[in-house]
Structures are given as C-alpha cells and as structure tokens.
Amino acid sequence: MSEGSQRNSPAFGQVVIGPPGSGKTTYCHSMRDFMGRIGRQVTVVNLDPANETIPYPCAVDIAELVTLPDVMENLRLGPNGGLIYCMEYLEANLDWLQEKLAAFRGHYYLFDCPGQVELYTHHDALKNVFAQLAKWNFRLAAVHLVDSHYCTDPGKFISVLCTSLSAMLHVELPHVNILSKMDLIEQYGKLAFNLDYYTEVLDLSYLVDHLASDPFFRNYRRLNEKLVEVIEDYSLVSFVPLNIQDKESMRRVMQAVDKANGYSFGEQEHRSLEALMSAAVGADFHFSSTLAVQEKYVQCEDKAVEEEVMGL
Q: Worst-scoring range by mean pLDDT, 72-81, 282-291, 294-303?
C-alpha cells in the first residue's frame, strides 16, 4: 500500500469513557491483549492526565504534554478543575496528538479517557477532540463502562441510565454501553429482576414500583417516573455485560464495538478468533460465567414463582 493511500484510509478505534472506578484502564489492557491474540495491531493512547499506573504498553501518553499534578500545583486548581484544564489544553494542542498518532498508521486505537463524568455530559473539550479525530478519518465508537454493581440498587441504576443517555447525546459517536465487572456483581447483593431486564432496559415502571417500596424513595415517585419517561422516550440505552476474565464475553463486546464503528476484519483474523475461542472454552460453547449469572437469576425467578403457586 502506498503512503498516500495509507494516509487516506480510515483508522478504527474506541474511546473508552465512564466514571472513576468503572474499569476503563483494565478494559484497555484486556482488550489490547485479546485483540493482539487474533492478529490486530493495537495502539493504546492514554488521554487521562491523572493516570499514574498504566498496566499496558502506552504508545501515546498525554503525560508527555500535560499532567494533572503539575496543573494543580502551578494553577492552584482542584482535581476536577485541573482535569478540565488538561482537556482544554489538549484541545488547544491537537497538532501534538496528530503527530503522535501518525507514527501508528494502520493500527487499531484504544483511547483511555479520564473518569470525570462532566467531560462526557456537559463540557465540550473532549467532544471537540473526538470530532477532530473524525475529521482525520478516524472511525470511532464510544465504549461507556458502568460498574455492574449499580444494578443491585434501583435508584442508582436509574441514575446510571440518565448518565449514559446524557453521554450518548453529548459525545455524538456510535455508542456501546458496557456493564463491567460482571464476575463481581453478586458480591453487592441480589438483583431485583433477571439480567435481561437491566441489559435491554425493559419496562422501567417495574423499577419505579420497586423503588416505591422504600420509604425514602416513596416521596420521589413522581420524579423517578419522569426520569424513566425521558429514558424510555429516547429508547437508546442498552448494555452489553462484560467479564474480562471470560473470553466469550470479550468476544461479544468486541463484535458489538466492531459493528458500531464499522470495522470489518479479514479471513485471517476470523480464523485466529475461532482458534482462540476453541482453545479458551472448547469447540462447543457452554454458558460462560457471565451468561451463567443470567441463567441463575432466571432459575431463581422460576423457583420463586413455583413456591408462590405451591403456597396458594
């Protein structure tokens, strides 16, 4: 391929966003390894100036341009104000980013982004950076990670739905919402409904009814009903469950993102993926640990119904 045609060919990738502690850096590390094993050349770009412990080989690091501790010390800003300044500084120095990315043409990009929610729901700096990447012929999908333990608390889950919807509308990229840390979900309590209810964001009136049983939330029923109406009116939010320890779960997420950003892999990568999955879980796919959680909740519901009928 000539240098001119390579320059004009689209570059594919993911911008990994989400609140602090949702697992963005761990996701980038695991997805880089997973894609590397099927033959994809992956470049990880750290855009988080507060990220001091990076577990993956970092090809491009914003710390070479600006760091949060320096901004906080020199400009006397707090963590939130400092992060916003760093993103505005990046936006003002996009030539630096373009030069760094040019060294990795033909690669697949993972952008590890900061964890400040306001950057994806209100502030324009990162949104403008993503828009400029699109002008440079980057085909990106936003991967929004949300900690799955929020499913165990109906009030927090409604809040997460509102945040996810706001990010989808503000960032203006093809969007894949991820429920991360599915292997740890049961440590935080039992789900009120089966897993499909949360991933597909089904009839949320049941969630409002469940909240109304709590004396604290009973006074806010009208507010919760209106929030739920907004979410359902847009009908945009759904989630893909993720357990990074589970190869089948990683494959499902990768394919959802590939569909969102339009990435199409060749026959060689397809064969490598089949070989990886066969080595990981055998030729016949049984329930992965993520799907096993879903199966368990379905069985629990069936048993509860049976006990209720027998009691009658």
A: 282-291
Question: pLDDT tens for residues 184-230?
Answer: 887 877 888 888 999 999 889 988 888 888 777 888 889 989 999 99
Provide the pLDDT confidence category of residue 284 given band limits of 50, 70 and 90: very low
Question: Taking the model in full, what pTM does it have?
Answer: 0.85
**HEC assignment per residue over the chain:** CCHHHHHHCCEEEEEEECCCCCCHHHHHHHHHHHHHHCCCCEEEEECCCCCCCCCCCCCEEHHHCCCHHHHHHHHCCCHHHHHHHHHHHHHHCHHHHHHHHHCCCCCEEEEECCCCCHHHHCCCHHHHHHHHHHHCCEEEEEEEEEEHHHHHCHHHHHHHHHHHHHHHHHHCCCEEEEEECHHHHHHHCCCCCCHHHHHCCCCCHHHHHHHHCCHHHHCCHHHHHHHHHHHHHHCCCCEEECCCCCHHHHHHHHHHHHHHHCCCCCHHHHHHHHHHHHHHHCCCCCCCHHHHHHHHHHHHHHHHHHHHHHHC
